Amino acid sequence: MTQVPHPQEPPPDLLTSAAPGRRSDHSPWNWLLLIPIVLPLLVPIYNRWEPKLGGFPFFFWFQISFTLLAAAVTAFVFVKTKRRS
Amino acid sequence: MNVTEFVIVVVLFAAVSVLGFWAHRWRRSSDVSLEQWALAGRGFRSWVSWFVIGGDLYTAYTYVAVPALLFGAGAIGFYALPYVAIEYPLVFLIMIRFWSVSKTHGYITAADFVRGRFGSPTLALAVAITGIVATMPYIALNLIGMQAVLTTIGIHGYWPLVIAFAVLAAFTFTSGVRAPAMISFVKDALVYLVIGVAIFYIPHRLGGWNHIFNAYDAHFKATPPGTASLLTSANQLQYITLAVGSAFAIFLYPHAITGVITTRNRAVVKRTMAALPIYSFVLGLIALFGVMAIAGHIKPLIGPTGKPDTNTVVPNLFQHMFPSGFAGLAFAMIIIGALVPAAFMSIAAANLFTRNIYKEYIRRDATEQEQAWSSKIVSLLVKVGALLFILLINPQFSIDLQLLGGAIILQTLPSVMIGLYTRWLHRGALLAGWAAGMIVSIWTFYLTPNIALHQAHWGGTGFTLSHLGLHTETAIYIGFIAVVVNLAVAFGGTALLRAFKVASGPDQTAAADYFTDVADTRAAEPAVPAGT
Lengths: 85, 532
Hints:
The structure holds 2 protein chains of 2 kinds.
Chain A (H helix, E strand, L loop, with lengths): L14 E2 L17 H5 L4 H4 L11 H24 L4
Chain B lengths: L2 H20 L11 H6 L6 H12 L2 H14 L6 H26 L4 H9 L2 H33 L5 H17 L2 H29 L2 H13 L14 H15 L3 H8 L4 H10 L1 H19 L5 E2 L5 E2 L3 H9 L2 H39 L5 H25 L2 H15 L3 H6 L8 H21 L14 E3 L10 E3 H22 L17 E2 L14
Antiparallel strand pairs in B: 1-2, 3-4
Helix pairs in contact in B: 1-8, 1-9, 1-16, 3-9, 3-12, 3-13, 4-7, 4-14, 4-16, 5-11, 5-13, 5-14, 6-7, 7-16, 7-17, 7-18, 8-16, 8-17, 9-14, 9-16, 10-14, 12-16, 15-16, 16-17, 18-21, 20-21
């Protein structure tokens, strides 16, 4: 594997212990993670046959879409909290 | 026997085996240590980690059992969906703390952390034994996934399983975690190819999704109560407690923890967690094969025990729908899908033995090299054990034990996951809570019958509250009940022990250890000879 130098990156710093001021994972953005956790647990919302989507009953397509919601929200929180961790 | 399918499966199996043996050269290190063999030096980056952890968590058994559950039990079987949807946002913040503290102190198992955090080798032993006991039947289940495919191809007897596991054991022994990591690329490529085609092709042949779901609905309207095309008032609570319990449990399983700490830094963990729901999406599609099987009038085949085996439903669906060439690919996907998690699980179980039993109680001054040897040998023994489980005991025993395994691994939650945030809980109270949780798990599992299999006991994970004298049909996941009891004992016991000023153990970790990180730059990598 060829080593590609990254000119803008800081000098090699192998094992950083937490830098001062970064000793926390707290961020208001983390609260967004509750959406993809709580929504799939609200059974009465999706325990129904209609409205169908492309032949899929609501029960199925809505729950499958939770996985995409999880990916989107988790990725968003990751990007928003990147510099802090 | 279908020769085309058999040849494709054998050729692909041989190819991944070569890859498995060759994998020890990948990111090679001269260092002979457990950290190298079991964690590949904690060096996997984002893309690699996504394949590796995805390959690790989504087992062959998942591919056959989740659709089989939907096929047999209807809507309740779809609990896997909320489970795999919530698991990553749920552990996103927890696992980065675990990554950091493990990196700082060189922890290889969850029990290592518990030992360091609470200063209690006994509590660590409890965590380690729970991990091993929960993992063993899980490895055995991967064999059941393979067996279902072999039955469908028309190969009878257990000899192919013995050969497959012998090869798996050999390359895991030589290459360690690098072997399943490398093979996971092939596994996942096959998964995306096969599922990508199947999800359009099979519904097309069956007359469209509308027809498929109508057949599913009609099927469950004609079956006795207890199974239904939507959730009933009796099983809604079971559905969500199963989902939440399983989502916490999966990242307490040793193989998942091993997967997480093979990564290079916190950003890799986070990025991987954000991308893993893609696998969950695919699992959602795979689950629908159970629905398609109903519409396609697929019947379970007779397994080696002489009874119909619902795990053969998905392979049999592929067999009926696809030409032999493509069915062969699909079968190879399931068989290779069994190898990756089985390797990870045996490595992780072996590490628990080495770190928390061998090094703790047998040979305190074991060197890095000796620890690596211990894990290598135990990983072999674990696979032999899993094979014997299937060969000598009714496979249903492994299935039941794995159901129980999910509940008992959850009993390590207070020590491991709450322990990452606070050490207020007392080690004595944690041990008592763990014991209470184990007893409740086993007791509630014992009381639950399995109506489909005519078993009066050890029948399932949905504990009906009528056992407690309540006039209701409502059922709750046994692991959930057990962990609630566990937490109550742990918190109550801690309050009591603190009131009597019983000494708690020393804490090896400091607050900053939970935020340790490694720079994300490529330049920061230690010098590796070119070409590795």
